[in-house]
Amino acid sequence: MKEIHYLLIILFLLSGMYVLTECMSLFYFSQAITALIVPVITVFYLVTCKRKIPYFTTFLILYSVAYLFTLIDVSEIHKFLTYYVSNLMFISAYIFLIYGVSKNIPFKGVVPRFNLTIIILILLNSYVLYNLWSNDFSSEYFFRELPDTIEKLPTEDVPLLRETMMSILLEFVYNLVVLVLLNVSFINYLYKENKRSMLLFIGSLCVVFSEVIQYAIFFPSDVIILNVICFLLILVGFLCFYLFAIHSIKKGALTFKTI
Hints:
Distance between the termini: 22 Å
Radius of gyration: 20 Å
């Protein structure tokens, strides 16, 4: 287990650098350090793990590239392209992880067993998505008194409205996929009840909470403590994902269908 010790040391150093840059208001560097967390874990996984999981490898690579893509300094004309491409890569990464986890869950047996839990999860997710959707429309371009149709808008406002609608739709899909990941990992844990599934669920939970904090923060310089908490959640979440991928299946868990 020496490899995991090296990884922990690297992540600890990155955490210290992040806190230091946040306290010094060097927000570009703190964002760059945040973007390095997943790539570092990805490289470590690719180098040290002998038996790689294909869907998990794809998840890490897509997520790493998407994070690094957000750091590219581009002109205003291409910023919208960076935004859409990076978010689509994040969504694709989550979909690969969801597929990898869910493909080995026997839903025909799980649904009747946890039907009440699944119904509650669906209701909670619907409520969360509805509130996020409503907040996006009330906080974005739509809070202005716009005409009822795009055709009645001034010519210069049409592209802005269309771009805003596309971004809101993209963020809705993103939030939906993240919630699906959380639910699938939770159901996976309920079904298998082993350490490996618990690591996956804790990682998903940390990622979701980090997304909630990022949704609440519009400007990174506003509240440093929230930025630090968000950073730590991402770090702990992907560390749990890494441990999930390298964790061996114990004999006591062989009665379950492994991921």
